[in-house]
Amino acid sequence: MKKSGLLKGIAIAFSACLFTMNLQAQDLRKAQDTERFARPVNTGANHTLLILDKSWGETKPEIGDEIAAYDTKGNMVASVVYVGHHTGLALWGDDEYTEEKEGLSQGEKFNLQWWKRTTNEMISLKVSDFERGNQIYNKDGLTVIADLTINQTLEQNMELFQNVPNPVLDYTEISFYLPKAEKIHLSLHNNLGQEILVLTNAKYEGGSHKIELKTEKVDPGVYFYKLVSGKEKITKQMTIVK
């Protein structure tokens, strides 16, 4: 690598560190307080993504909008609230010690979505240019985005997020999103497919919701939680440990 390229890389990395320190000091709690997206699972392995504020051009989000990253299977792996300057996300990698997929696999491409709070629109984003890195997950990697464009407006469907924390010691939270008011059935199943616990069976307004699960009476093991609304159903996996 040429000296100028090396110095530029060091400067970008240093700027990312300063940004993170500044965010922790001033806006970390606000940036983490997402409404549309759930908290991602902290798996202990991540790739740092920095979206430079200039990259938005004339399409800059409003303060309070949210940005999230998804894997190729449609699982959310990072989320943050836009607070008015450079945006940093930790793209969580998959925990290789659990059977479920909670994050990005090594070498997997990530995709970005932007939720507009005032209009409740979901936008997919296209990365047009990078200051550093690319759109591929690498453990301990760094990507700095220099230019973003709007790809398309997405239809918002029912969404079930990975429970947090996972694996579960004695308590976890399960979040889901409903595009409109509807009755849902959320239940916990063992690895034989048998329903062992009904978490909720009620009508909810459209929007994001969160259910708490205490597991002191549930044996350790691998379980599935299923969200059903009409003919729609989504299943995810969790691990309970003691």
Q: Concise description?
A:
This protein is mainly beta and 242 residues long.
State the main characteristics:
242 residues; mainly beta; Immunoglobulin-like; 2 domains; seven-stranded mixed β-sheet; 12% helix; 45% strand
Describe this structure in words.
The chain is mainly beta and 242 residues long. The protein folds into two domains: 3-154, no CATH class; 159-240, Sandwich (Immunoglobulin-like). The protein has two helices and 14 strands, in the order ααββββββββββββββ. It has helices at residues 3-26, 28-32; strands spanning 46-51, 66-70, 76-81, 87-92, 111-116, 121-132, 142-154, 159-160, 171-178, 182-189, 195-204, 207-214, 221-229, 232-240. Strand 5 and strand 6 (121-132) form a beta hairpin. The protein is globular.
What is the H/E order?
Answer: HHEEEEEEEEEEEEEE
Instruction: Report helical residue fraction.
Output: 10-25%
Largest beta sheet, briefly?
A: 7 strands, mixed
Number of domains: 2
Strand content: 35-45%
Q: What is the mean pLDDT? A: 90
Radius of gyration: 19 Å
Secondary structure elements and their pairing?
Layout: H1 3-26, H2 28-32, E1 46-51, E2 66-70, E3 76-81, E4 87-92, E5 111-116, E6 121-132, E7 142-154, E8 159-160, E9 171-178, E10 182-189, E11 195-204, E12 207-214, E13 221-229, E14 232-240
Parallel strand pairs: 1-7
Antiparallel strand pairs: 1-4, 2-3, 2-5, 5-6, 6-7, 8-9, 9-12, 10-11, 10-13, 13-14
